[in-house]
Structure to design on (690 residues):
């Protein structure tokens, strides 16, 4: 039963940090729950993606003490071994965790902070019964009911949830919850219906097949000036993107108290400092190069480096761009380069 | 006889005359490009657009969601408005009151050459407070929003709600006297359309009375509470026509002036320092609050500064190009009372 969410919280709260959707200043956010009555169960999705649980906007890497001259002690983080439950995220955001993990584990140096937190997190996701008009997960091989990236998958049947264990971790946790009752045939049938309904309600269909092959040879195409003309250069699209990973590392020294800390904050390729060289030269000097980088990173470099798209189709950047520079329109414009070319060949 | 005109029909009239003017300007080659608004692809939005051909003029719209201040694209000029050979293009710009104020104030600050800019003045009838409507609708998806008569109609999958325009227009628009860009004598030629100051609106900053009556602790709590969800995406700054610094104070990193974390102290220092930089410069367009992805309302803070500047220096930004803004002028007899006051 949905009303048993409080029971779930009480049972798991001591062992896990329990993250779930709540309302903060009118916005839905995934936050650590202190009171189970705060949990919101009817929602589309959050504005700020749940990536902030594993990759917070401001993340202290370590703190240190000095004797006024030299560092005398480094205080490492102790919270990384804590176990987390992330409740209520949508399939698109669960998939974003896979993309983030690929990025943070890539290369010789692994990002321990992210990966430890990720390994200690158990995801209880909920299928998307009513995708928004801006959702396009089915265009990137996702689905509003995709359960592969979760540990436990729930289907919202109205009064109750249909619960399915996906990973070993998830199944093990489920076996501990003795009060769960067996699903009957009617429930499973209803879940199936909701699955189909959700799939059909996604209207946005984007052609992203082979888009990297169009993008790669058109780095200098004049279309980028057109795509970026109204962009004002804020960080909304990338800060609200569940797959954007860029960060800036900053040292802060408090010389009056002989201590300091190193932390990272979100950064984005849309900002003027992002690729600014110490010489003063910036290879991405205007919005044209910056917008291009964002698109290429997601739809060209990700497929080439990791064999996956760097987008999950959640539609946040479409919903909240201040100047309505719609990603769907951008993709259409880029695809039109291909069709124009084909016309030329056939003519 | 009083003829009551609805918002809906006003919008239609504005849009038609705006298109007519735009067509004429492009045909007569008085401008190379027109910056205006087009219909947004999601409800509650509009998209700025650059129009270069007469046939594209049809895409221009005027509705009460045209919240972006288009002056932003001229200071600094975006590369799309500069021809590599000819230099600065002749630009026509759809100018509601606050866009006009921005352009005039930017000229006072020597940031813009208005010689190759033609303002297509329109009598703005107010911008809808989209964040307020979003909050009312809550966790439902809005699929359509339009004005019908004097009402805002919001439609979703299984709901339809009506809001009165009067109540859901931006607070700033309610007290705005400068619906259309103010005229300046020497630039008479660059105006098209009706431009006037609405003298019937008496702005005595009554909207601030309640806030001002609160004790200091409560004021501080309001500021903390309002700003706490900030993600530091800087949409407010980037949408602001007055934030044209090449390197914002918060981006100074040689050495670092301000920290950029999302801890409340850093969030507050960014927003309050930015607000101070806008004292006597803010043109009350409300774009910062309209674009904030997490719905932070900065208007109250900016209004308070507008009031202080008005009271102490009798200055309103962007109205009289010949009057020196107080923050740009040094005066020996400046009383500097603020230094002695606590609040």
């Amino acid at each position: 039963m949905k009303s048993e969410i409080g029971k779930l919280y009480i049972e798991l709260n001591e062992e896990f940090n329990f993250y779930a959707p709540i309302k903060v200043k009118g916005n839905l956010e995934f936050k650590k729950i202190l009171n189970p009555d705060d949990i919101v169960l009817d929602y589309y999705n959050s504005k700020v993606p749940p990536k902030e649980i594993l990759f917070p906007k401001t993340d202290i890497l370590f703190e240190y003490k000095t004797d006024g001259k030299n560092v005398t002690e480094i205080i490492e983080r102790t919270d990384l071994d804590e176990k987390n439950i992330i409740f209520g995220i949508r399939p698109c955001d669960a998939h974003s965790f896979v993309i983030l993990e690929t990025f943070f584990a890539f290369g010789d140096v692994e990002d321990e902070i992210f990966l430890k937190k990720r390994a200690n997190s158990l995801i209880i996701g909920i299928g998307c019964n009513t995708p928004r008009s801006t959702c396009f997960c089915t265009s990137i091989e996702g689905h509003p009911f995709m359960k592969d990236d979760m540990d436990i998958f729930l289907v919202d049947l109205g009064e109750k949830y249909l619960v399915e264990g996906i990973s070993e971790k998830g199944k093990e946790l489920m076996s501990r919850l003795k009060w769960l009752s067996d699903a009957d045939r009617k429930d499973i049938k209803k879940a199936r219906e909701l699955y189909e309904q959700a799939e059909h309600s996604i209207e946005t269909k984007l052609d992203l097949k082979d888009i990297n092959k169009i993008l790669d040879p058109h780095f200098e195409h004049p279309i980028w000036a057109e795509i970026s003309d109204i962009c004002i250069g804020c960080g909304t699209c990338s800060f609200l993107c569940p797959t954007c990973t860029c960060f800036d590392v900053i040292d802060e020294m408090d010389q009056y108290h002989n201590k300091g800390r190193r932390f990272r904050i979100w950064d984005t390729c849309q900002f003027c400092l992002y690729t600014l060289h110490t010489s003063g030269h910036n290879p991405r000097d205007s919005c044209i190069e910056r917008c291009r980088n964002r698109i290429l990173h997601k739809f060209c470099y990700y497929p080439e480096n990791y064999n996956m798209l760097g987008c999950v189709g959640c539609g946040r950047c479409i919903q909240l761009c201040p100047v309505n520079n719609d990603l769907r329109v951008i993709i259409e414009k880029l695809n039109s380069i291909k069709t124009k070319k084909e016309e030329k060949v056939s003519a | 006889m009083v003829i009551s005109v609805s918002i809906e029909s006003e919008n239609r009239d504005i849009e038609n005359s705006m298109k007519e003017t735009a067509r004429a300007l492009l045909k007569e080659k008085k401008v190379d490009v027109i910056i205006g608004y087009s219909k947004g692809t999601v409800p509650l939005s509009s998209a700025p657009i650059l129009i270069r051909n007469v046939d594209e003029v049809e895409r221009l719209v005027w509705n009460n969601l045209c919240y972006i201040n288009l002056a932003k694209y001229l200071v600094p000029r975006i590369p799309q408005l500069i021809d590599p050979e000819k230099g600065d293009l002749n630009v026509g710009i759809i100018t509601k009151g606050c866009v006009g104020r921005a352009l005039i104030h930017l000229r006072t600050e020597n940031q813009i050459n208005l010689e190759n800019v033609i303002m297509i003045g329109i009598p703005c009838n107010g911008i809808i407070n989209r964040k307020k409507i979003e909050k009312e609708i809550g966790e439902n998806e809005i699929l359509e929003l339009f004005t019908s008569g004097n009402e805002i109609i919001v439609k979703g999958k299984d709901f339809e709600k009506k809001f009165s325009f009067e109540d859901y227009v931006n607070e700033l628009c309610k007290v705005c006297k400068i619906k259309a860009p103010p005229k300046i004598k020497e630039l008479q030629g660059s105006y098209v359309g009706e431009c006037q100051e609405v003298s019937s609106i008496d702005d005595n900053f009554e909207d601030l009375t309640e806030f001002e009556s609160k004790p200091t602790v409560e004021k501080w709590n309001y500021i903390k509470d309002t700003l706490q969800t900030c993600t530091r995406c800087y949409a407010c700054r980037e949408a602001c026509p007055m934030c044209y610094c090449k390197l914002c104070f918060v981006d100074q990193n040689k050495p670092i002036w301000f920290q950029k974390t999302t801890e409340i102290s850093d969030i507050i220092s960014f927003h309050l320092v930015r607000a101070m930089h806008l004292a006597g410069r803010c043109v009350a367009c409300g774009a910062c609050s309209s674009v904030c992805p997490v719905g932070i309302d900065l208007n109250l803070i900016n209004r308070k500064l507008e009031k202080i500047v008005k009271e102490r220096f009798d200055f309103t930004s962007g109205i009289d190009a010949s009057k020196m803004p107080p923050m740009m002028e040094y005066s020996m007899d400046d009383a500097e009372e603020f230094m002695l006051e606590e609040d």
